[in-house]
Amino acid sequence: MKTILLFGAGKSSSVLIEYLLRQAPQHGFSLRVIDADASLANAKVG
Fold first, then answer.
1. What is the rounded CA–CA span in Å between residue 12 and residue 32?
2. What's the pLDDT score for residue 2?
3. pLDDT of residue 25
4. What is the Cα–Cα distance from 28 to 3, expressed in whole angstroms?
5. Cα(9)–Cα(40) distance, rounded to whole angstroms?
6. How many domains does the chain have?
7. Complete DSSP assignment for 2-38
8. DSSP 39
9. Coil, strand or helix: which one is 46?
10. Are the beta carbons of 36 and 28 closer than 8 angstroms?
11. Contact 41, 35 (CB under 8 A)
């Protein structure tokens, strides 16, 4: 399984994160989001 690592969970990344989370199961990858504010990254990923 491949992993996509996304740096930054700011305002502009919200749509990208949602898209990647929807695509992950059918394409067999996982998504990791990191940000200086860990609670922000956790909130975006769910």
1. 16
2. 97
3. 97
4. 9
5. 7
6. 1
7. EEEEEE--SGGGHHHHHHHHHHHHHHTEEEEEE-SSH
8. H
9. coil
10. no
11. yes
- What is the distance between the alpha carbons of residues 20 and 25, in angstroms, rounded to a whole number? 9
Q: At what angle do helices 14-27 and 38-45 cross, to 10 degrees?
A: 50
pTM for the whole thing? 0.85
* The predicted structure's pLDDT at residue 41: 94
Could you tell me the residue range of the domain that residue 11 belongs to? 2-45
What pLDDT does residue 13 have?
94
Residue 36 forms beta bridges with which residues?
none
Taking only the tens place, the pLDDT of each residue in 1-46 is 899 999 999 999 999 999 999 999 999 999 999 999 999 999 999 8
Tokens for 19, please give them: 């898209």
